[in-house]
């Protein structure tokens, strides 16, 4: 089932996600619905807060990046085959050099900006079978994971922009929060009367 993606301005996007356990209700169905929602919206990642659930769950499929001909063949291969569920994730360390990459977000449609992040992360998480993992990623894989991880921390990529850039985007962001945006996927817009 395709779910609605929350638009910028919804308070759930600002909540720190709660950890979950194996008994979380209908978890397998939720994960399946999140995959379906992400693919329908042409995304490469989706976090539970984006569908209105303030829990520590996100998923990533970097397959669409594998077509980038500027990447080395081994990096294309790694991106093509990367599809994972992250539960109760914790970034243990961010290291390496800072690099800028153009990011967008399903909750903030039609806005793309360069965001600077460290190029390597070490992350611990549980997969959908609650098996623990501790892994290191770099490059685009690290970037997509960092972006989705921010969602479970209540952070949006626009928070990482300069104050000047934020001021320039303010009108667009207000329009998104008011539903003045045309998208190809289901979105839910905040009730701004309640938010105030």
3D architecture notes:
The chain is α+β, with helices and mostly antiparallel strands and 196 residues long. It has one domain: Peptide Deformylase (Alpha-Beta Complex). It is 28% helix and 31% strand. It has a 5-stranded antiparallel beta sheet, sandwiched between helices. Strand 4 and strand 5 form a beta hairpin. The protein is globular, with a radius of gyration of 16 Å.
Quick overview of this protein structure:
By secondary structure, this protein is an alpha+beta fold.
Estimate the helix proportion, in percent: 25-40%
Radius of gyration: 16 Å
Total DSSP helices: 5
Major sheet attributes? 5 strands, antiparallel
Low-pLDDT runs of 5+ residues are: none
Shape: globular
Helix and strand content put the structural class at alpha+beta
Write out the CATH superfamily name: Peptide deformylase
CATH architecture descriptor: Alpha-Beta Complex
* Order of strands across the main sheet: 2-3-4-5-6
Which terms would index this structure?
two-stranded parallel ribbon, 5-stranded antiparallel sheet, single chain, 7 strands, 196 residues, 5 helices, 28% helix, Peptide Deformylase, alpha+beta
What is the fold's blueprint, element by element?
Blueprint: E1 5-6, H1 27-40, E2 45-47, E3 57-61, H2 73-80, E4 83-105, E5 108-126, E6 132-138, H3 139-152, H4 163-177, E7 187-188, H5 192-195
